[in-house]
């Protein structure tokens, strides 16, 4: 039996990530990512890569965002479009349950798109250069319980198909969440 995990795109490809400037936070996430990947490889767990909606829609030079900014009908529809072929693959693996077991879906906690248990919210928007309260507005962003927009859509698509799978996010503050899926 081959075990399969569906993982957020940047679990396998960190080049897709928005440029981050908090090196301590990034180092902690990278350490957990490596620990998780090493364990998955050692255990022979297969990894299917989800799309990165932010890279596809906004590219490599994008600013960081909060989930309020992605909570639009168009962004949600685009997420569904990106996920539709992935969902077909998932259903095919599930249809052959003598060979395959899908053990879950891993997102990136804190991401406005791919967070599962935590996302990021804030009252962001407008022209950056014309604000004199920019530092205050940036500081208003906060981690919040709940999923990012793409993971919300993925969960809804799975529900529509009657599929129940464990979903959690890679989060350096709670490393046991992803590691426990590999047990
Ligand atoms: S949108 Fe998702 S896959 Fe893309 S960089 Fe952010 S967390 Fe990773």
TrEMBL record:
<protein>
    <recommendedName>
        <fullName>DUF523 domain-containing protein</fullName>
    </recommendedName>
</protein>
<dbReference type="InterPro" id="IPR054648">
    <property type="entry name" value="TudS-rel"/>
</dbReference>
